Amino acid sequence: xxxxxxxxxxxxxxxxxxxxxxxxxxxxxxxxxxxxxxxxxxxxxxxxxxxxxxxxxxxxxxxxxxxxxxxxxxxxxxxxxxxxxxxxxxxxxxxxxxxxxxxxxxxxxxxxxxxxxxxxxxxxxxxxxxxxxxxxxxxxxxxxxxxxxxxxxxxxxxxxxxxxxxxxxxxxxxxxxxxxxxxxxxxxxxxxxxxxxxxxxxxxxxxxxxxxxxxxxxxxxxxxxxxxxxxxxxxxxxxxxxxxxxxxxxxxxxxxxxxxxxxxxxxxxxxxxxxxxxxxxxxxxxxxxxxxxxxxxxxxxxxxxxxxxxxxxxxxxxxxxxxxxxxxxxxxx
Length: 333
Description:
The chain has helices at 2-10, 12-17, 19-49, 53-58, 129-135, 165-186, 204-215, 231-237, 241-249, 259-262, 291-300, 318-332; strands spanning 71-78, 81-89, 95-102, 112-118, 141-145, 192-202, 219-225, 278-283, 305-310. It is of the alpha/beta class. The protein folds into two domains: 2-49, no CATH class; 53-332, 3-Layer(aba) Sandwich (Rossmann fold), CATH 3.40.50. The protein has a nine-stranded mixed β-sheet with strand order 1-2-3-5-4-6-7-8-9, with helices on both faces.
């Protein structure tokens, strides 16, 4: 009896012949089919939600043969190097102002490697000056530009991060193209080695930097500081004033209102930086670009990559961040 009970439980043949099991199986079959259907539908929707790389890349196309009309507005030599104020023409007729920091005499030899520096939301090209003071003495030049609607490009009533997601996407793409044109400008300068170009971006500049590095093969490495991915999570939870205003403006609207942001979400780009090396530096208590968003960007990135976590919020210790950044750039450029 005991043996028979064991055999009844574990033998598939006997189990299948049980009238009780047959009824249970017939009852489960529709449920299994329904579950399989919904699973297949979910997988299909998830696959369809990921934008095609070719379509993403095409957004940043521009006419590289168009005249830059580059002008040096002012050149200021100093002990820490030479600061050059300039402007050039980008796509859509945009006049883009920038600063180029060249190493001081004795710090390396021209042509110099160069990094592009991307400032944060509400900032300007001048914010990169502090980092440049650490970088140029190592014999590395730095180029900084004003992002769309920032610095000398401010326009009343317009913001790069706001509830008009179509405008936000357009401004984001414009800024990426502006930096690509900036690389075109560097190629005209005999004192810059365009085979050794890198990127440093902080906050919004880091988010943009992930996209720029992915679409721009001339960049050999990137350092992203307090950056992250997944726009929907970031804007839903960030304490940044712009995010708070966005939540108020779109309250009650369907999630599809944010669809334009999928086209500029760095999680769909960062994997294309590989095999070029990527360094991320983030704060464990960041309530502006949340750790969850940083991890999302990190998980989508390919190798080689490294990440440093600081016991800080959105402002990790500047001296330590810059020291690691300079060391990374010196190693990879």
